[in-house]
Write a structure and sequence with these properties.
mainly alpha
């Protein structure tokens, strides 16, 4: 089940183990670990509010300024931060002797090996995910998610696509490739490292409600296992980017024109 990045590991000294643990802790504090804690607190706050979880609205790509150029710069800074997180994960793995190719990031995308599986994964995750959200929202156990609330600027659609790509890069590189690889080095089993990765992914989506957290946990299990079995990361990045881009752009186009969209 182990891919190239999870092959036979040499003996790890106690000093090296401590270093890896500290490295993981720092990376999670800087990236998605604190996001998970914030999302958990957000869920508790929503549950305790008078309207409950169903009475809250969360904007994923909010406008940050009334000035178009300033707003664009804010959006680009958010994209740069996510790309920086992805670069951090790649750099730390590279420093430990694991280059991008060894975690499934080949220099060239291949249609059959990367693009097609990515689109299939996007459909497997995205369509049931939308149905789960609509059902949970109708039951009042999910917040109202606004995927995009940017003003009608010329740069709106390109910015949303960049946001989708940056999200997918950061999450799949840090939460799947980096975390599972480092946990392997510590001697964790494939199942244990997979569960840790999926729980992390589910935690920082709890701001969407319990349904959003569980849905992303399942997504994490599927994505993580796919990577463990195939050692291909591009399909996960493409699938995630496709899911987010369709959500962002679809909401922008369909908002106010269909009755089933909250």
């Amino acid at each position: 089940m182990r891919g190239e990045s999870g092959g036979e590991q040499g003996e790890v000294t106690e000093r090296e183990r401590l270093g890896i643990k500290l490295e993981i802790a720092v990376v999670l504090v800087v990236t998605f670990g604190l996001s998970g804690l914030n999302a958990g607190l957000s869920l508790v706050e929503s549950a305790l509010a008078p309207g409950g979880v169903g009475g809250r609205t969360v904007a994923l790509n909010p406008s940050r300024s009334a000035q178009s150029t300033i707003d664009l710069l804010f959006q680009l800074l958010s994209v740069a931060r996510l790309v920086g997180w992805a670069a951090l994960g790649l750099y730390l793995l590279w420093r430990s002797g694991i280059g991008p190719r060894l975690i499934g990031l080949a220099a060239r995308l291949r249609w059959r090996a990367d693009v097609v599986p990515g689109l299939v994964l996007a459909a497997i995750i995205g369509l049931p995910g939308l149905g789960l959200y609509l059902i949970a929202h109708a039951m009042g156990v999910s917040v109202t998610i606004v995927p995009a609330s940017l003003g009608d600027h010329w740069w709106r659609l390109p910015a949303l696509i960049l946001s989708a790509c940056a999200n997918s890069l950061a999450e799949e590189i840090i939460v799947v490739a980096y975390l599972i690889t480092r946990l392997r080095k510590l001697g964790w089993s494939e199942n244990s490292s997979l569960l840790a990765s999926a729980l992390l992914r589910g935690s920082y989506h709890l701001y969407q409600g319990l349904g959003g957290g569980i849905g992303n946990l399942v997504m994490g299990l599927i994505f993580g296992r796919y990577w463990q079995r195939t050692n291909k990361l591009w399909p996960l990045i493409l699938a995630h980017a496709t899911i987010d881009a369709v959500a962002y752009l679809g909401y922008t186009v369909l908002r106010g024109h269909v009755s089933w969209l909250p």
